[in-house]
Predict the 3D structure of the following.
Amino acid sequence: MSRNGFDAIVIGGGHNGLVNAAYLARAGLRVLVLERRHLVGGAAVTEEVFPGFKYSVCSYVVSLLRPEIIRDLDLPTCGLEILPLESTLTPLPNGDHLVRWADHDLTRRELYRHSPRDADAYDDFGRLMHRLAFAVKPMLGMMPPDVTSLAPGDLAGLLRLGRYIRDLGSDRFHALVKLMTMSAADYLEEWFETEALKATMSASGIIGTFLGPRSPGTAYVLLHHYMGEIDGVFRAWGFARGGTGAVSEAIATAARRQGVTIRTGAGVARVVARGGRARGVVLESGEEIGARVVVSALDPKRTFLELVDPADLPGDLVHDIRRFRIRGSSGKVNLALGELPDFRCLPGFGPHLRGAVSISPSVEYLERAYDDAKYGAFSRHPYMDIVIPSMIDPGMAPPGRHVMSIFVQYAPYRLTGGWTDAQREAFGDTVIDTLAQYAPNLKSAILHRQVLTPADMERDMGLTEGNIFHGELSLHQLFALRPAAPWAQYRTPIAGYYQCGSGTHPGGGISGAPGRLGALRILKDLRV
Amino acid sequence: MLRTTPFHSRTAPLCQAQNWRRWAGFVVASSYELTHDREYWAIRSAAALLDVSPLYKYSVRGRDAARLLDRVVTRDIGRCAVGQVVYTPWCDEAGKVLDDGTVTRLEDGVFRLTAAEPNLRWLHDNNVGLEAEIEDVSDATAALAVQGPAAREILRHALDDDLDGLRFFRAMAGRVGDMPLTITRTGYTGDLGYELWFDARYAERMWDHVMKVGVSYGLTPAGMLALDMARIEAGLILLDVDYVPARKALIEARTSSPFELGLGWTVGLDKGFFVGQRALREERVRPSAWQLRGLEMDWDGLERLYAEVGLPVELPATAWRTSVPVYAGGDQVGYATSGCWSPLLKRYIALAHLRAPHTAPGTGLEMEVTVEHRRRRAPARVRELPFFHPERKRA
């Protein structure tokens, strides 16, 4: 233990940093978490931006949070409650709609209305993805082995990997290869004919990437989203009571119970490294705090290029990290509403308002939205994933009032002319105008709006280029290549300096898995 | 044809699932929606509206009303003040539980007793040499439970009265327009909650009013499937499921004393005479053979059993109500009577009757589970009840 009393310092109080700290403390280490903002959570925060209305400012749904973390940290007793999110509605420009409900028979009947063939295919597709997700899921919880190493740990990991793949059987293996190589749109084309179904499903392949539904590699992300599970049910999405910040708060409570000290308003300027070893950190205030372990929960760009001197790192790693793709592609609009949106396709109050609403009428619509972004503009007709959290947790807004969370893609980080205030408002207007075509009462219902561009997310949440996953979930940036080979096992070339953010395996989303696996690596190295 | 409750004209159109359950000769909704998930979550995260009219309700009034009730139930009714509610079991001469319910002291000589089973004859049989009038008001009285963290806020707006001062297990008279009612801060969910008791003639108007006010707070009609999970989390036992009432027990082994059901705290051994007192005094001096305890399945152990057959853990979607053997080493040392996966606590929990000395919280036992058609034993741990006890329940 160092003089001031901390064994480990975790930089960044987002969900992964907090999970990491909690696991380290659980093993007996004295841990300090340093968070730059006034509250913990990073991109998983709830803030009352407009009085009485709580926004899940950035991240807004939960699915990937690892059940073992919930158990190990006893998160339910720390206040974590995950409410089910039941349906996905895709309103269509012609006044029709497509809904996938929580109930299998209702969904089947709805798909049958659009295409009897798709209704059957949907069941088969679901079964295949479910079986694949079950087979591949253990990889989410394993340390990525170095494929070039002959160390016993890596070989054991490779053996396990080989066994998972062998056990897949040929049909699932072939499906896996297709998922790894094809575009989401092409892969879904093999299964379905209903345009709105293909589009809405392919949308989960593009979230958080700077790719379109026809870009190769996006099919894999479909599978990534099937791996979310709640209570043993795969592909279940939920909403945390109290908003996404409640997830971070629960993990912070668990961490404190284990004895972790959390300091907010404590931005870290740099990591102190001497003789190839991390010795502590220096805060933006100039204060220096020592520890033998320093963990960065920030993204790889910040972890390797800003917190430490790149001159202390191998050149090829520095180049790999510079090339690491972290292009922000999405924005967020949060609304306070005086009344519920009234959708032209399903007028009035109904259970569809308790689920997601996806503005994704066709694959072409999504691809055109991407086309705008490729050339430096935000989409004129963007893809949106919308939820009304107050319909699930009425505590998010005053009685009878509502909040709406709109995830918007594409909003490129590198906007032509840059993100000015005027551009931000123009982007917000585009989002509202697009949605108002489906829900005409929207504009008059708005009491307050918050628009977040990738530039805002970079500045406020510390997400480089505003990328919500700390780096795209494309194949060349996953598993043993996340963030760069051979540094995918949470270590860095500086002894005692570790990484545990979403830029490490298994990547983004509120899974907590990078935080946990990072902690297990550290504890193993320390022989705790 | 089974009977319908006074709220049926409201509950029937809501019951999309057409899923009904029998309760004391009535039909009540098992779940309104196709699955009960949202109704369950309403209890824990917003508020749920439950039709609990099938409960048996007795009015006991007169000079000796308190003495009569004191003779029957195990709690000391002399210590139940006006405006107070007590939960209590009552026993036969052998000290074995006949039923359990609540006693509310509405006025000095006016009580309401609720019960799961008919008890009119039992009350009359005990009303010897006493001046007490007993009336079965089961049909005349409608009852609604408003349960969940938003319950107080909803009723604050729905009632003409201020219920901020109404503490846990207290009662007050109230009014909604021209409709008088009694409000008790009670329920079967272990959460913040209230029960409303009123003339069955007002049933539909009361339902409409409470729903109208409650909807913007997330008030959701909930059925028995959701309630069953909530009451297991709250460690609350259910007659015919977790215990056999002594009247119905074909063999003595099926009967239970209050001590064996974890209800020792309700037994006023030193109060005046009550039915079963002598037997319970005797039982008190020697430890009870059985104890009702919580049991929590060990997740890793369960996962291992399923992994052996290549499956992810399959969790029960609803609460189960069957007798399931519990083992220590190779020997059966008890049985679980109801259990469920708690979506709130993220734990697989059960209520179990355990034989001494296997009752200490923390004791490692095994519970039978059926994994892919085979009976297996999964590790489980004894837990103190209740599993869930939020501060808001009493705050």
In short: Chain A has three domains: 8-44+59-81+241-325+470-526, 116-193+204-228, 326-461. Chain A has a mean pLDDT of 93. Chain A touches chain B at residues 67, 70-71, 75-77, 81-84, 86, 102-103, 106, 134, 231-232, 241, 354, 393-395, 399-400 (CB under 8 Å).
